[in-house]
Design goal:
Chain A: Keywords: Cell inner membrane, Cell membrane, Membrane, Transmembrane, Transmembrane helix, Transport. The complex is a heterotrimer of chains A (about 270), B (about 350) and C (about 300). Chain B is of the alpha+beta class and about 350 residues long. In chain B, strands 6-7-8-3-9-10 form a six-stranded mixed sheet, sandwiched between helices. In chain B, strands 13-12-11-14-19 form a five-stranded antiparallel sheet. By secondary structure, chain C is mainly alpha-helical. Chain C contains 13 helices and no strands. Classes of the chains: A mainly alpha (about 270), B alpha+beta (about 350), C mainly alpha (about 300). At the A-C interface, helix 1, helix 3, helix 4, helix 5 and helix 6 of A face helix 1, helix 2, helix 4, helix 5 and helix 6 of C.
């Protein structure tokens, strides 16, 4: 086995053992915190040992019986849901508009719309905090949704842009030549063809908003605190084991999302 | 059905400094099968896209049945188009693809069903109406694309290299079928191709394009046998050119005056060439009526249906002739000297630009 | 040629009509991007302009360079140095660990790569906060890592792995690795494997083929991966704030503190402007470098 060639240039598996070892190490490093937190969240101890000496659901119970935790989870879901809708619509329209329009301004517009992805979040956070203070948008759902939508638009645009890149423009032309108005052609031909990309854009938008911490730290508080803001506050100074329960649920959610994404991709192929 | 007249006037389209269309004017008769033929970058596809409404020219007029179409959006032009890659909607089955233009025109459901099935029958696809597009072969997709383009009885049928993705046998079969379909439907058809054989086989008239201009517009036989310039002659068939000298009213090759069918294609100034195609050269001839070309055999290449004999002429020029085995002449060997004959009616002197 | 056609002879055919139709079309399609553009302007550009303007005035409202002069104080200079040190170290570690992973992924069959990619994508999709928290738990004084090391006898006393620079670096490498691996993998995937066979055919040993063919061709992808990682590190807030435990003063934590602890908007905005400028310079520099390293044809 070790002497069989691993590449077309006849390097054997044996000669590449070091490579396999390094990669295994890095992969372990990458998944360990995501995976280990799950069994640890069932620990009965304040210190979350691994492997847990005795199992309990006390940290899950702490979460589900706390009105504050539940309230902030609802806020996060609400904000993420609204952001997903708004960012998907705006991002898809913008991406499609830039795909169709060829003018001097399209690269500039594209660059501006991608900016939220490249600018440090801490900067977005204080800028938004500063401006919201003047318009009374701090600590409101509206304020959070607008900020998160701005952050999510680039991800939607990248996803939809990728879809449009592999979309055959002749399909839309064919629809037009057969009598479809621009809007009808988009809705009946273009959109069904890029639906997977739009869907993955939606997924990105949801995750961007739901996981966002830094902006929420500044512009949400009190009854409109997001889940991440409350988690941050609870672990800044000491390790709150309730957060382990929430983290496990979030990791489980990412795994579900990953599997769903794979499933959709396979079904589409 | 006698609608479908097209009149193009002075259509210009530039991309930066590149002139894709440089003042194209063209009149297409109702019911005509007209081919736009040219190499890539000649402007033929741009011209088709202008007619379809996908490209906006900088300048020009497009009349369809005497109505100005030039700024009309594509969906209000009522033109059927067949795309190079077919552009069938992959998320719909065969039936829905063909029904799409009828649904947009709010045709009632029973009529849609009847008309789609009729169209599919014409292209021999009625048994595959509920197939998915991805389950069709190239030839089948071609037929569905065709049915979709004519099912709503458009005034014009536009085709952008529709056969280029098919293999040779299927392509030749489809050429004949398309021609037959055109006769059956009687629709004005504008066909774009870079394949001269396809253009010659199918067209009523051919417009040869180069650098955004129409160089020659005529029936296939004239375009092939009486090209009006070196470009058109070179684009059709395996043409070789021998430079000739002008002397008084006639032309001279290797000191011998040429007997010509037609000298109109050569302008009175500038360079001139004798056009020589392998299938027009003869092994035997008459010194009083035909033109004699002498040279030495360079090589003999077996091609299945014939042997192709390359002959080098004085001045480093080269011509080719086919030897099918039916000639009395035995197959020559490399190094042999040969006398070939070009009949006067096949002898044409042309210039570098159309006169 | 005269252009006589229904209308006045010599009039350019339909020129004005075509021009206005083209302009209308462009306006409609560009208009689709307008709502998104307005949002980005309101949430990003206006605050930036406002803060940049603010940074030019002192507390009394007079025009001054005071806010920028303050950046030269030792506390701030120290935080700049820490930021660059951390960003450089994290990026270097990411290259060392990320390159072999991307390389192996690019060499595997599509199916095997798909499976291994899950190990990279799962953390990528998991909230940074969750992962940072997980490290906090694992690395704390009586956490799992210290427990294991103690029980194996490697150490006698629990190590301080968290609330310091070590913890910050471990956490940041974990967050940044996918950002380096994914683009690098994509660019390595685009390298034609036939080139390596060609090199072998010319007599290159596998290691020569790697060094002389694969490595240079992977450079543009590596450069953009490094740029992305470095720039993300420069403005990174969450992990340093949590795993640094207030002991690692980075640029981002200074900005946050200036606002939330001291309400000093002048300092915060000057720091932000400086951070943006440095980020832009790094991105621009790397773009130039990537262009120079790129071998793809068709580039002017």
């Amino acid at each position: 086995m070790l002497n069989t060639p691993a590449t077309s240039t006849q390097v054997t598996h044996g000669q590449r053992l070091w490579l396999y070892a390094t990669v295994a190490l890095v992969m372990t490093f990458l998944v360990i915190p995501c995976i280990l937190v799950i069994p640890m969240s069932f620990s009965d101890s304040q210190y979350l040992e691994f492997p847990p000496r005795s199992l309990s659901l006390r940290w899950y119970e702490a979460f589900f019986t706390s009105p504050e935790w539940i309230q902030s989870a609802v806020v996060s879901l609400k904000v993420a849901g609204l952001t997903t809708v708004l960012a998907t619509v705006l991002g898809t329209l913008a991406s499609y508009g830039l795909y169709k329009a060829t003018s001097l301004f399209t690269p500039i517009t594209r660059g501006l719309l991608m900016l939220p992805m490249m600018i440090p979040l801490i900067f977005v956070a204080i800028g938004v905090f500063f401006v919201y203070a003047r318009f009374g948008l701090n600590n409101t759902i509206t304020g959070l949704v607008l900020a998160h939508t701005t952050l999510a638009i680039p991800f939607v645009m990248i996803a939809v842009g990728n879809g449009l890149k592999s979309f055959d423009p002749n399909l839309e032309r064919a629809a037009r030549s057969l009598g479809a108005s621009p809007v009808t052609a988009f809705l009946t031909v273009t959109l069904p063809q890029i639906r997977i990309s739009v869907f993955s854009g939606m997924l990105f938008a949801f995750v961007t908003s739901f996981d966002e911490v830094v902006v929420s730290l500044f512009v949400s508080s009190g009854a409109n605190s997001t889940l991440t803001k409350r988690m941050f506050a609870n672990i800044r100074d000491q390790v709150d084991p309730t957060v382990a329960a929430i983290s496990s649920m979030l990791v489980a959610l990412s795994i579900v999302v990953l599997i769903a994404a794979q499933f959709v991709k396979r079904k589409d192929a | 059905m006698r609608s479908g007249r097209v009149n193009l006037r002075e259509v210009h389209k530039a991309y930066g400094s590149f002139r894709a269309l440089d003042g194209v004017s063209l009149d297409i008769k109702a019911g005509e099968f007209l081919t736009l033929l040219g190499p890539s970058g000649s402007g033929k596809t741009t011209l088709l896209n202008v007619i379809a409404g996908f490209e906006r020219p900088d300048l020009g007029s497009l009349l369809v049945d005497d109505v100005e179409f030039i700024t009309r959006p594509p969906h209000k032009r009522d033109l059927g188009m067949v795309f190079q890659n077919y552009a069938l909607f992959p998320h719909m089955d065969v039936f829905s693809n063909v029904a799409y233009p009828l649904k947009l025109r709010k045709v009632d459901r029973p009529s849609i069903r009847r008309r789609v099935m009729d169209a599919l029958e014409i292209v021999h696809m009625q048994h595959l109406a509920d197939r998915r597009i991805t389950a069709l072969s190239g030839g089948q997709r071609q037929r569905v694309a065709l049915a979709r383009a004519f099912v709503f009885e458009p005034r014009l049928l536009l085709m952008d290299e529709p056969l280029s993705a098919l293999d040779k046998n299927l392509r030749e079969h489809m050429q004949i079928e398309l021609k037959r379909l055109h006769r059956q439907l009687g629709m004005t058809t504008i066909y774009v191709t870079h394949d001269q054989q396809e253009a010659l086989t199918m067209s009523d008239r051919i417009a040869v394009l180069d650098k955004g201009r129409i160089i020659q517009l005529d029936v296939p036989a004239t375009v092939y046998d009486r090209p009006n310039c070196k470009f058109v002659a070179g684009f059709m068939g395996e043409t070789r050119f021998l430079p000739v000298e002008r002397r008084d009213q006639t032309y001279v090759l290797d000191g011998r005056p040429l007997r010509l069918a037609d000298t109109r294609a050569a302008s009175s100034t500038g360079e001139a060439w004798l056009m020589v195609r392998p299938e027009r050269l003869r092994w035997q001839g008459d010194a009083d009526r035909d033109n004699r070309i002498e040279g030495r055999v360079l090589d003999v290449v077996y091609r299945g249906d014939c042997n192709q004999v390359s002959v080098s002429l004085p001045g480093g020029h080269e011509v080719a002739i086919r030897h099918s085995g039916a000639e009395r002449q035995p197959l020559p060997q490399p190094g042999d000297t040969l006398a070939l004959w070009l009949p006067a009616e096949a002898s044409l002197v042309i210039g570098s630009a159309a006169p | 040629m005269t252009l006589a056609m229904d209308g006045a002879p010599g009039m350019p055919l339909n020129r004005a009509m075509l021009k206005s139709a083209r302009r209308r079309e462009r306006r409609i399609f560009s208009g689709l991007a307008l709502p998104a553009l307005v949002l980005v302007a309101c949430i990003l550009l206006i605050p930036f302009a406002w803060l940049a303007w603010l940074s030019l005035f002192d507390a009394a409202g007079n025009l001054s360079a005071q806010n920028y002069a303050r950046l030269l104080r030792p506390a701030y200079v120290g935080s700049f140095l820490t930021t660059f040190k951390v960003a450089g170290l994290v990026t270097a570690l990411c290259v060392v660990f990320g390159y072999p992973v991307a390389y192996l992924l690019s060499q595997l069959s599509a199916r095997a790569a798909q499976i291994l990619l899950v190990f990279v994508i799962l953390p990528f999709w998991t909230s940074v906060l969750v992962r940072t928290y997980a490290w906090l738990v694992l690395l704390q004084r009586n956490g799992v890592i210290n427990d294991w090391l103690l029980s194996m006898g490697v150490i006698d006393e629990p190590l301080a792995l968290v609330h310091n620079l070590t913890g910050t670096i471990i956490g940041m490498v974990h967050v940044m690795l996918p950002f380096l691996i994914l683009p690098l993998y994509a660019s390595m995937k685009a390298i034609d494997p036939v080139l390596l066979r060609a090199a072998a055919n010319c007599g290159a040993s596998p290691s020569q083929a790697f060094r002389q063919v694969f490595l240079p061709l992977s450079m543009p992808g590596l450069a953009s991966g490094i740029a992305l990682t470095f720039v993300l590190c420069l403005g990174f807030y969450l992990t340093p704030a949590l795993l640094g435990g207030g002991r690692v003063a980075m640029w981002s934590t200074q900005i946050a503190d200036a606002v939330s602890k001291f309400s000093n908007w002048g300092a915060a905005s000057a720091l932000s402007v400086a951070l943006l400028v440095v980020t832009a310079v790094v991105l621009w520099g790397v773009r130039r470098l990537t262009d120079a390293l790129s071998f793809s044809a068709g580039k002017p």
